[in-house]
Write a structure and sequence with these properties.
18% strand; 42% helix
Amino acid sequence: MRTLVTGGAGFIGSNLVDRLLAEGHEVDVVDDFSTGSLSNLSEARGRGGRALTIHHLDITAPAVVELMARRRPELVFHLAAQADVRVSVARPAHDAAVNIIGSLQILEGARQAETERIVFAASGGTLYGDPPPEDLPVRESHAQQPLSPYGVSKKSVIDYLVAYRELHALEFCALALGNVYGPRQDPHGEAGVVAIFAERILRGEPVKVFGDGEQTRDFVFVDDVVDAFVRAATRGGGLVCNVGTGTETSVNQLLSTMATESGLEVMSV
């Protein structure tokens, strides 16, 4: 199958590209390399051959629509995004330009290419706002009440996906991801606490814990997330599906486990 992965040079996207190539698909990667890296695609480039084509392109550019109309992907995995909540608060118009307008470009490209389905990377951590403890783990039926521009932009794209499904018969599945961790995660980003802790532990640097450390997250391994994307290519049509473990882990528990597994002395501040 001919597939297209936006954000394919990123942490999750590059792992997905590896899986798609391993399963014999043709893959077009669209990435502006603002946060992604060619090094993340080194394995894919080494074994992909003609099955892999990389396009250095911003999803907000009109050229992305032309590219998709020309390449005619049967399946699109849309992961490209402005993904920093802090940036979305400081620059909401920029966040909307990338996440909403950029996503509309992808939808238009898919419509013109007669793509069968889009699998969209939504955000489980922001889509539902701040649900009370008794509602955890959050179900898909929970009200979507995002409290950041980033979360609002993700919700907006889901609304557009619903509209395109009704107007143009473009099928979709949206995956609301938990806190993803694993190989290639950026230790200098906002949300990659596992990568941040791992880098500091290995360097013997103090690990900074915000608050009392008892705040909990649903940490899910990137391979499991990639598996969810692959499954969503044929299942969950028209649905928002939460992807996580359903288990709460506090930041303190995470740090303790990583310290034990590393066998190194860890100092927190």
